[in-house]
Amino acid sequence: MIHVLAADPTLADFGKDPLWITIIKAVLLFVFLMLGVLFGVWFERKLISRMQNRYGPNRAGKFGLLQSVADGLKMGLKEDLFPRTVDKVLYLMAPVIMVVPAFLAFSIVPIGPMVNMFGVQTPLQLVDLPVAVLFMLAMGAVSVYGVVLAGWSSRSPYALLGGLRSAAQVVSYEIAMGLSFVAIFLFAGTLSTSEIVKAQEQTWYVVLLIPSFLIYVICMFGEAARIPFDLPEGEGELVGGFQTEYSSSLKFALIMMGEYLHTFTASGIAVTLFLGGWRAPVPISWWDGANQGYWPVLWFFIKFVLTFCFIVWVRASLPRVRYDQLMSLGWKVLIPVNLAWIMLVAAVRNVVVNEGNKTLGIGLGAVIVVGALAIWMRFDTVNQRRKEAKKAQVEAEFEELSNEPAAGGFPVPPLDLPHYHGVQHKEIPSGTN
């Protein structure tokens, strides 16, 4: 069944498979993702427990391997409740809208090169498009509708506000994520995932475009709603966010599955666009057969698992941020930095590639970097002045309040506030009325 082929797949190799081969690849991809969810949950709980000096799941099956299966069966068999005021159609459709795009988004991830599968030469990828990366972003945008509809159809103010906040988070980080791909498009000259992997034959883009990779990693947590950006799951002031009215039943399981599948998709895209895709790392790549046949599936799986381990490690290490910090990072930091980096990459690549002048390209890049640092320092100085002015205003208000024995005509107890809004003050004498 296995036949070694050296050719990398291109767009011309897609759309030629018999229907039964396409069905086989679709079923294999579905099974991979479903098993990935089951064992991914178990693996995450085990890894976090080891990092916290605990055992984790160890009752259901050997090493607790059946714990996720038991949890899935429990949620699937629990009574399915419908609150009286919900819009039943949209209430049911919302979890489905969150899950289906996650499956579709993973279909453009290349897992291996051209192989011989049951006598048919086919790429180890379900589908590829001239705009495959945009298709992935579009599927992430469609899933936002599921979040909004889940909150709106619940007819609960807490769920509605949670849905709006979650949608704003995903959309904000989707913009920064899309901008982080622009530098890759400039280097690869294509939006096809298979051809982007082919363009990394010599050097992975994580080396050439490290700022884009770092920005994508941050956006990956925000778009997939993982800690430290898991506000949709941690809506303490909104009861439970957009999923407040979903009981622990099959609908709730679909919502959790959708979030996990988005994490898998983000990991697969990171491997594809930045970590060489299915290509073997050095020194394994020195072996002639490393990137041929079915061996690349192993390299892709190893990279995929390591990326997922990093996501779990971040969850076990960082606390949850506030919502205002979340949105400020996305709009005030990631998007401006992305735009500056795209301008630098475009200018340097145009000078170096089109004109062949490396010295001029390096000089232009240095000028752009220095200019960006100057602008940042200028804004930082302005922000510092604003903070100092705010601090002085708070101190003045505090002094005025402390010198007024009856604020507004009402008796006020002695104030003992050594810290007021982050500003240290002198302790008020106990004789003050």
TrEMBL record:
Record-annotated membrane-spanning stretches: 20-43, 89-111, 131-152, 173-191, 203-222, 260-278, 298-317, 329-348, 360-379
Pfam families reported for this sequence: NADHdh
Compositional bias ranges of the Basic and acidic residues kind: 424-433
Keyword Ribosomal protein in record: no
Enzyme Commission code(s) on record: 7.1.1.-
Alphabetical keyword list: Cell membrane, Membrane, NAD, Quinone, Translocase, Transmembrane, Transmembrane helix, Ubiquinone
Assembly description: NDH-1 is composed of 14 different subunits. Subunits NuoA, H, J, K, L, M, N constitute the membrane sector of the complex.
NCBIfam families associated with the record: PRK06076.1-2, PRK06076.1-4
Family: Belongs to the complex I subunit 1 family.
Role noted for this protein: NDH-1 shuttles electrons from NADH, via FMN and iron-sulfur (Fe-S) centers, to quinones in the respiratory chain. The immediate electron acceptor for the enzyme in this species is believed to be ubiquinone. Couples the redox reaction to proton translocation (for every two electrons transferred, four hydrogen ions are translocated across the cytoplasmic membrane), and thus conserves the redox energy in a proton gradient. This subunit may bind ubiquinone.
Full protein name: NADH-quinone oxidoreductase subunit H
Annotated source species: Nonomuraea rosea
Source taxonomy: Bacteria, Bacillati, Actinomycetota, Actinomycetes, Streptosporangiales
Gene: nuoH
